[in-house]
Amino acid sequence: MFTPQKEGRPARVLLVEDNQDDIDLTLAALEQSKLRVEIDVAQDGEKALAFLRQEEAFADKARPDLILLDLNLPRKDGREVLRELKADGRLSDIPVVVLTTSESDEDVLKAYQLHANCYLVKPVDFEQFLKIVRAIEAFWLELVILPQRV
To answer: What CA–CA distances, in Å, run from 22 to 100, 103, 122?
Structure first.
């Protein structure tokens, strides 16, 4: 059984988001947490995959415990990131929370077909956004038992 808190280290989160306002909101919400959280940000799909594969500039980055993934990204969209991530045996067990503005039934279905672990729509209201980020944190970083890679 593994949770970052039981291991005595911060939870590692990769936020894949290109909108600076959403990055700032998410970081602010996670920084107010009672949990210790280390957050890395990738602002496009190609950088996200390079980070996860520990390529070049990201060679020293630790594997995240959780990925927060927007769908609408430059260079490589979130659907493609999800497809490649879940097809890679070294990365496929990292939980992915799709956190996006799209409420499209097609996007929801496609995300789950690509093995997203959950799908949440970003609310426009600041307080609701904070509530969602805190719920993600409480569930995925405090309650859920995560796969452990050594």
So the answer is: 10, 17, 9
Q: Do residues 129 and 123 touch, judged by C-beta distance below 8 A?
A: yes
With beta carbons less than 8 A apart as the criterion, state whether 42 and 74 touch: no
The answer for residues whose C-beta is within 8 angstroms of residue 34's C-beta and 6 or more apart is: none
DSSP string, the chain: ---HHHHTS-EEEEEE---HHHHHHHHHHHHT-SS-EEEEEESSHHHHHHHHTT-GGGTTPPPPSEEEE-SS-SSS-HHHHHHHHHH-TTTTTS-EEEEES---HHHHHHHHHTT-SEEEEPPSSHHHHHHHHHHHIIIIIIISPPP---
Q: How many CB atoms lie within 10 A of CB 7?
A: 12
Global pTM value: 0.92
The whole-number average pLDDT for the span 17-37 is 86
